[in-house]
């Protein structure tokens, strides 16, 4: 059985792994190319958050809908 990871697309650039170095988001477990994450191979962090998770963390928590039945 062959290794399908070579053609697997997980990065938001929509290009496959193809042997390029990648890093896994510590939050959502999505794999991102180091070049897409703007990370140098010589400076890979232990903990990494992808752009979607970083943006999600900055959003305020959702507010309850107006007119909800809270006493």
Give a quick set of tags describing it.
elongated, little secondary structure, 8% strand, Herpes Virus-1, 71 residues, two-stranded antiparallel sheet
* General form: elongated
Q: In percent, how helical is the residue content?
A: 10-25%
Structural class by helix and strand composition: little secondary structure
CATH-defined architecture of the domain at 4-51: 2-Layer Sandwich
Poorly predicted segments: none
What is the residue-mean pLDDT, rounded to a whole number?
Answer: 85
The first-level CATH class of the domain at 4-51 is given as: Alpha Beta
Determine the N-to-C terminus distance: 61 Å
Radius of gyration: 18 Å
Number of strands: 2
Number of helices: 1
Q: How large is the share of residues in beta strands? A: 5-15%
Largest sheet: 2 strands, antiparallel
Strand order of the largest sheet: 1-2
Determine the CATH topology of the domain at 4-51. Herpes Virus-1
| String of helices and strands | EEH
Find the CATH superfamily of the domain at 4-51: Zinc/RING finger domain, C3HC4 (zinc finger)
Keywords: Autophagy, Cytoplasm, Metal-binding, Nucleus, Zinc, Zinc-finger
Main location: cytoplasm
Family: Belongs to the PHF23 family.
Subcellular location: Cytoplasm; Nucleus
């Amino acid at each position: 059985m062959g290794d399908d990871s070579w053609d697997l697309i997980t990065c938001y650039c929509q290009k496959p792994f193809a042997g390029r170095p990648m890093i896994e988001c510590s939050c959502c477990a999505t794999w991102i190319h180091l070049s897409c994450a703007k990370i140098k191979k010589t400076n890979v962090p232990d903990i990494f958050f992808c752009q979607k998770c970083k943006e999600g963390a900055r959003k305020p928590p959702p507010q309850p809908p107006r007119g909800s039945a809270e006493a």
